[in-house]
Structures are given as C-alpha cells and as structure tokens.
Design a protein that fits this description.
Shape: elongated
Helix content: 10-25%
Number of helices: 2
Distance between the termini: 101 Å
Strand content: 25-35%
Structural class: alpha+beta
Order of helices and strands: HEEEEEEHEEE
Largest sheet: 6 strands, mixed
Radius of gyration: 39 Å
Length: 213
Amino acid sequence: MNVNKMTLKGIVGIAVMVLGLATLNVIKAYAYTDSVSTNNYTALTVLITPNVDRGVEITSGNVNLDLGAVDLNFSTYTVRPATVTIYGTASTTELTLAAAISGGWSFDSTPLVSETDKMATWALFSSIAIASAPSSSEFQIYNSTIASDTASQSATGVGDASARYEGGWNGSDMDSMAPGTKRHMWIKMQTPSASSITTQQTVVFDLAVEAAN
C-alpha cells in the first residue's frame, strides 16, 4: 500500500513537472511573437541643400560694337574685345554660347560659300593677355563658326574636347574655370554676298554657365 501511494505521488509529481515544462514551452514560444510587431523599424531622413552659385558677366567696356555700314561680301571683326568674368561659389564653371540675329538675316552654315541673307559669324575666346585683335585667319572655321540655317543658334558647349570657340593662344582654355577667371571674347563676321534686306541687323550673343564636365 505504501509503495502504491509513493508511486502515485511520483506519478503526480512527474505529471506536474511535465505540465510545468509544457507551460514553460508555451510561454517561451509566446515571447517570440514580437518578431512580427510593427514597432521594430524606424528611420530618420535629413535633407541638405548645397548653397552653390554660378555666374558670368560680360562687358564691352568702352568698345564700340556698332560696326556701322559694311559692304556686302566683306569681313569685319571687333578690334577690341569684350571681357568675360566668372563669378560664384562653385569651384569650377563652364559656359555655353547661344546667338541670334534679328533683322532678317540668318547664320551661314557654310562660311566658305557666301549666300544671300546669310552671314558667317565666328567667336573666339582668349586670355586677357591678348589685347590685339586676332587676324582674320586666326578665326578657325572648324571650331569657332556659329553655324546655323535658322535665325538662332542652339546653345553649344564652349571648350571641352572639341576646343569649341577657344583661340590658339596660351591661356585660352575655357574648361573648368574657377571664380575670378577672365577671358577676352572676339567676334568676326562676313556679310552675305547679296541681301534682300536693307535694315540694320542685330546679333545677340548669350553666355550661360553650366557645371564643369
């Protein structure tokens, strides 16, 4: 009889221990349900806007840019330059050049073949050490012609690999210019061989800044 009571107590004790282990296992499994909670991820976003300024100024000083009455099929150019100055806080800046004619003429895309109402136009940049006007031959057609069949010229990168609008002198590089950089700008024009228009023609050159590339 005593043995049976002890056996029964042992069985009950084992059952309680098993039940306790089962209960612990349930509690342990329940504790990991936090893995699907929606509060286990967050983020912080910080916005920064750089204070970068690029600027350019062009001045003709006391240069007279009214070239007056010019014969047809005749070349003329500025004998004194306009001066271009780079401004801003950006470490380097480059330029694009756009030009437009108002008055009826358009740019000549084939400068070696003169055409009615089409004027061949060239632009060159040099260092400010170049104070004398370039000779007519120094306006190289391959890199300085503003060539377009329409009345406006699309913006074109100045400098870069093609050396666009860069003169052949030292210090004429127009790439990656720092603030304070100065360049001289020279213009040459060749009037049409014939013109159906007798009114004054106005040519505007626009320089715009862009990021160095």
